[in-house]
Amino acid sequence: ERQYPEQAEFKQAVTEVLESLRPVIERDEAHYRKEALLERLTTPDRQLLFRVAWVDDEGQTQVNNAYRVQFNNAIGPYKGGLRLHPSVNLSIIKFLGFEQIFKNALTGLPIGGGKGGCDFDPKGRSDREIMAFCQSFMTELARYIGADIDVPAGDIGTGAREIGYLFGQYKRLKGTYEGVLTGKGLAFGGSLVRTEATGYGLLYLVDELVKDHGSSLAGKTLTVSGAGNVAIYAIKKAQALGAKVVTCSDSSGWVYDEAGIDVELLQEVKEVKRARLTEYVAKRPSATYHEGRGVWSVKTDIALPCATQNELTLADAKQLVANGVYAVAEGANMPTTLEATKYLQEQGVLFVPGKAANAGGVAVSALEMSQNSERLSWSFEKTDEELKQIMQNIYYNIKEAALEYDRPDDFVLGANIAGFKKVAQAMEAQGVY
Ligand code: NDP
């Protein structure tokens, strides 16, 4: 608090974790204090800030601020995405990197926590501008990353196209062909299922959650926010599991589709044309378009926020509860505010935090690293089955961690404790650093 008064998102993420770790710390407080484990865990190993200069299509030189926060590599190389969005700042990258430590630990795979990004806005930029930006970004980033050091991936604004340009520039600079990035194209070391992984993984976990509580996704109504990578594949898998998804959104507005979202049309609008949701509604008579935000006002059994941080507020949570919501699972990172999370949990809504629910993306990224190391490519079925197993394991691990502290169904507590214990043990075993 004293050191970073301006880092609101980072403080929010740390507060959520530390508050829920209280029962663990209290069992062995003197030890944790002596080792300064919480201080070490909340201070990144290093934070890199650098300039990215590039030339736009008018010949104008543009300057952006880029970040890579290498937070913790106790259990494996730093791993976490690169966000390209005008809102990116150090607080946001630190919050994402901090969350990533626990998420990566929960996957059961050997990956540490990191995150990066830039305040560059890819919207409306030509392919050539995107390439120029990515090449300049990688020219500096390449100094700090490597297949056994730090392996970045995609995030908001960074998809297959950007990863391709970044990978090409890394290869050119280093003269080496290595799995330094994940989310690559299938022709050059990418993994099948990576594109689908976060959305599919979210639904595998939610499916297990619902079954474990004696119910099923079949026939349930779901609301999803966002219309990007996570949202699209969450909608697709939810529908494959028999649910009806009636909403999606972007930063301009949202869609209610009483017949259920037509995923192919949504993919055409968002993935192929990179257009706005108004185009979806123009081609879909059962859908209506609404400016601004409002997805959480729709009656739903299960809400899946899949857009961005702090998009589900206390007022939204109250509306969801009033409409009888049964579960909320975070596809995005920290989409639910602290007050909204607390309220949902108090009201008995099953709430699964992002670090568990959206871990499928990074899990398949780690599988991509494995495939690159052994120079093999796994089939879709094998990789998808691995993903499903990982998500089911995460569900039972966080459930059991919560039970150990007599807090059944407190998945926030369970996820933080299960992730923390693994990382803390590894840090202690490796000595003070
Ligand atoms: P995309 O860029 O593919 O999509 C993001 C979506 O959210 C878009 O519909 C975008 O709308 C909307 N959005 C972004 N910022 C805002 C904002 N400030 N206000 C309202 N809407 C916004 O990103 P992803 O789907 O990859 O990521 C979504 C979330 O999931 C992020 O929190 C990300 O960190 C998290 N995540 C992603 C993983 C992945 O594998 N992709 C893995 C784990 C977590 P618009 O197009 O108008 O900007």
UniProtKB/TrEMBL annotation:
<feature type="domain" description="Glutamate/phenylalanine/leucine/valine/L-tryptophan dehydrogenase C-terminal">
    <location>
        <begin position="191"/>
        <end position="431"/>
    </location>
</feature>
<dbReference type="InterPro" id="IPR006096">
    <property type="entry name" value="Glu/Leu/Phe/Val/Trp_DH_C"/>
</dbReference>
<dbReference type="InterPro" id="IPR014362">
    <property type="entry name" value="Glu_DH"/>
</dbReference>
<dbReference type="InterPro" id="IPR050724">
    <property type="entry name" value="Glu_Leu_Phe_Val_DH"/>
</dbReference>
<dbReference type="Pfam" id="PF00208">
    <property type="entry name" value="ELFV_dehydrog"/>
</dbReference>
<comment type="similarity">
    <text>Belongs to the Glu/Leu/Phe/Val dehydrogenases family.</text>
</comment>
<dbReference type="InterPro" id="IPR006097">
    <property type="entry name" value="Glu/Leu/Phe/Val/Trp_DH_dimer"/>
</dbReference>
<dbReference type="InterPro" id="IPR033922">
    <property type="entry name" value="NAD_bind_Glu_DH"/>
</dbReference>
<dbReference type="GO" id="GO:0004354">
    <property type="term" value="F:glutamate dehydrogenase (NADP+) activity"/>
</dbReference>
<keyword id="KW-0560">Oxidoreductase</keyword>
<dbReference type="Pfam" id="PF02812">
    <property type="entry name" value="ELFV_dehydrog_N"/>
</dbReference>
<protein>
    <recommendedName>
        <fullName>Glutamate dehydrogenase</fullName>
    </recommendedName>
</protein>
<comment type="subunit">
    <text>Homohexamer.</text>
</comment>
<dbReference type="InterPro" id="IPR006095">
    <property type="entry name" value="Glu/Leu/Phe/Val/Trp_DH"/>
</dbReference>
<dbReference type="InterPro" id="IPR033524">
    <property type="entry name" value="Glu/Leu/Phe/Val_DH_AS"/>
</dbReference>
<dbReference type="InterPro" id="IPR036291">
    <property type="entry name" value="NAD(P)-bd_dom_sf"/>
</dbReference>
<dbReference type="InterPro" id="IPR046346">
    <property type="entry name" value="Aminoacid_DH-like_N_sf"/>
</dbReference>
